[in-house]
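cron nightly-structures :: item 1 of 1
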Amino acid sequence: MTTTGIVTLRGEAELVRRAGALFDGVRREFLCVAGDLGTWSAAAASGVRRSPAPGLVVRKLYGPGVFVAPGGPELLDRLAAAGAEVRISPAPPAHEAIVVDGRLAVLAAPRSAAGGVRTYSVVQEPGAVAGVRALFETAWETATDLAAYRRRPFPPLGGDDRAVLRSLATGHTDETASRLLGVSLRTYRRRVASLMTALDARSRFQAGLRAREILGDGGLSDV
């Protein structure tokens, strides 16, 4: 399907086949925001597979979930070693996109709940590309540099706090968690609210991701 300045492609294989040369032609700037490590696994490879050429800026923005995704920490290490700038957003990004040299943007459609083929919109209309780039810059400015994110100290936690964190990390409902911990529902929710503040988490999902960072997989086994 094609509209003025926009081409919609079905599946990443078609994206690479029809737009791969556009990625390979990057000269000045390669911007990418991803919530799923697999979203741009092939299409973005040309922008990160090798060390950036002199003058080429490569920026990758991920949500905090990258730290608990299989292979996520290793990917971050490879990107940093290749010279890419990497930042972590406070919450999973609402949209996934690539911007190349300010002349091309690729937008990934939300994944289908039914598991259908994902579509990608290739945009070359200058005004639309500029808008996508501006949104990326806004998200980039509110994100944390990878090295700084990893250095952030976690607040001191007592045994009760860690028990609540384990419940958050495993995704228990409030009712189930409070019953397992032997506290009232009101008390449990008060503790969750307090921990979210301490962890600087804007949502329970983000608090759960932070909990996994603190506890590690081994810290979840007794819940």
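cron nightly-structures :: done
The radius of gyration is 20 Å.
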